[in-house]
Design goal:
The complex is a heterodimer of chains A (about 100) and B (about 675).
Chain A: H1 4-24, H2 28-53, H3 57-87
Chain B: H1 7-26, H2 29-56, E1 64-74, E2 77-85, H3 87-110, H4 117-136, H5 140-158, H6 165-200, H7 207-213, H8 222-237, H9 246-249, H10 255-264, H11 269-276, H12 278-281, H13 285-306, H14 312-332, H15 336-370, H16 391-405, H17 411-425, H18 432-459, H19 478-493, H20 509-525, H21 537-564, H22 568-575, H23 577-584, H24 589-635, H25 643-663
Antiparallel strand pairs in B: 1-2
Classes of the chains: A mainly alpha (about 100), B mainly alpha (about 675).
Amino acid sequence: MENLTGYLVVSAILFAIGTIGVLTRKNAIVIFMCIELMLNAVNLTFVAFSRHLGHFDGQIFVLFIMVVAAAEAAVGLALMIAFYKNKESIDVDNVDMMKW
Amino acid sequence: MFDNVWLIPLFPLIGFLINGFFGKKIKNEAVIGGIGTLMIFMSFIVSCGILMQMIGLPPEQRVFEKVIFPWIHSGNFKADMAFLVDPLSAVMIMVVTGVGSLIHLYSIGYMHGEEGFYRFFAYLNLFCMSMLLLVLGNNMLVMFIGWEGVGLCSYLLIGYYFHKKSAGDAAKKAFVMNRVGDFGFLIGLFTLYWWFGSNHNIWTINFTEIKAASHLLPYGGVVTVATLCFFLGATGKSAQIPLFTWLPDAMEGPTPVSALIHAATMVTAGVYMIGRMSFVFIKSPDTMMVVAVIGAATAIFAATIGTAQNDIKRVLAYSTVSQLGFMFLAMGVGAFWAGIFHLMTHAFFKACMFLGSGSVIHSMHHALHHGHLHDDPQDMRNMGGLRKVMPITFITFFVSTLAIAGIFPFSGFFSKDEILWKAFSNPYHGSLNIILWGTGAIAACFTAFYMFRLVFMTFFGECRINPKVKSHLHESPLVITIPLMVLGVLATIGGFIGMPKLMGALPNYLEHWLDPVFELANEFGATYAHAGEHHSHALEWGLMGLSVAIAVVGIMIALTLYVKNTGAPARFTETFPALYRAVYNKWYVDELYDFLFVNPCKAFGQFLWKGFDVIVVDGVVNGVANVVMGFSGIFRYMQSGYIYNYAFSMALGVVVILGYYIFK
């Protein structure tokens, strides 16, 4: 299918945006959203390939990833609430207890 | 009764376990001392039973072996926990349990009120068990357990007053010097085992089996090597030149210990060991000569030192070393039974003297303590005139002194005279005999001199103790004087069992008794060059008279110097100050050993510590740690703690790896 390349390019752009967002933003929620963006970029790739190759395996993977992402969201948001209770902020610059 | 031989070491072991584990809780001295004494006394009763049964048997049936349990069976090697009962071990168990019981009883009185009373009795019982294993073992390995066990107990008991540095040092010295000897014992054991195994396929360390195979041994050669190694072991345990210096220091232990371990039993282990392996020793003329020469040299060397010591126990210690020298002289001239005879009589009179000195020290200590004086209670210069206040101690001590001096008819006379006669008339050493005899005779003269010097300084003359406390001197209680009296009687009459044939009043019981044990050795000895020479009865009578005369001369000199003309010793030391200093300082043997062995070892240890351990070993360990620390000091800056830094390096890594695969 000729427009596979298009899907993949969109997916790569989304993934890059997500990565840059994770690396540069300070707000934990934004970072979290960027991670979701990266996951969905991957999902897009899966679906595109699935259709291209005529297999359903990729789509099953996508369902799994969504489940994991939902679980991750629950845990991540809980962490953020706990973090906010301690620091009164969700800025990741304040989470540097592990440094030398 | 023979079947019950295992009970003999078992009773003291039980005593050790009870007092060792529960003594601290029992607290009651009478109970602790009672258990300790009862246990060894029960062993004595069993020993008596065995002796009685053995007397009832014809001589050739007097050997019995009892396997308690199989111990090590590995390939050709076989060692059982097994006991050998024969006339020799019967004599030894009688001496160990008999004298041991008396000394246990004595200790109840002597150790009264000491801290760690239970500890003392536990060790004493453990010692008795080890000593009984040593003399009963039917193979060299069981004997070696006993050998090491008595060494351990000796260490523990010398160091009984461990809070005193001198006691701790003396204990270590004894242990280390014994280890040197033990090394020799082991090498000897291995040599004999290896020789029999590789040459005749007889893999054995069992005394009976070695005895049965001993006709295979050559004269000299490997036997000389093995026996000299065994003899090194004997010099360590029995305090002979060159390993004798630990014994005088061992007097740091309580006096009953000195009596039991360092006079009557443990130090005779070397003599017993040679007796047990007489059929091996006799096969090496060179070793026999070494044993005889070392014995005679030790006898005279220690006797000279004994003449100048002022500490009552030290005089007795050197006297012990000297008397052990006589026993080795007997062994070396092939008069094995005479060595065992002297071992036995010595156990009686020396134990009596040590206990007597303990009684004196006890009394002195109490008197001085009463007056809050810090004079040395063991120094004979503080004593004098004690015969009036301590009549029982004096009489028993005096009797024993007559015995050791060799005055007829006390026990020491018979055993010592037999040794000197055999040194003179034995068929083994040719022209060396006269030197051996002469050395022994002079040593006997010195013995009489220093022992009577001790008696005169302690019991005769004016009392030199501080007059303030003189009235507090008193005779010791019955628990102390009863063992003294028993031993005094034995010291007096003990010699009659070995009366020379010449006198003819009694048959020589002991020689006949020990005949089955030493028969083979005598048989092998008959092949020596000078065997078969005969000496006239007149000569024997003459030498006998001479040895008594020599003893009397020694006594007379002591009498002149220390009773009649008390200024003479001081004048003598002023005339020959160098000689006096040398003798007083024990011929500087300790200093020599320090210079030759101890200090080089210390220097080497110092080097290993300061040089090798601190610089090399610690250097490597700390160096590794320092290098790691240096690098981590640099790399730790990479750990910023910010999550996005880590995420960035991770992403970068992924990009690099992917890039590599895409563009390669």
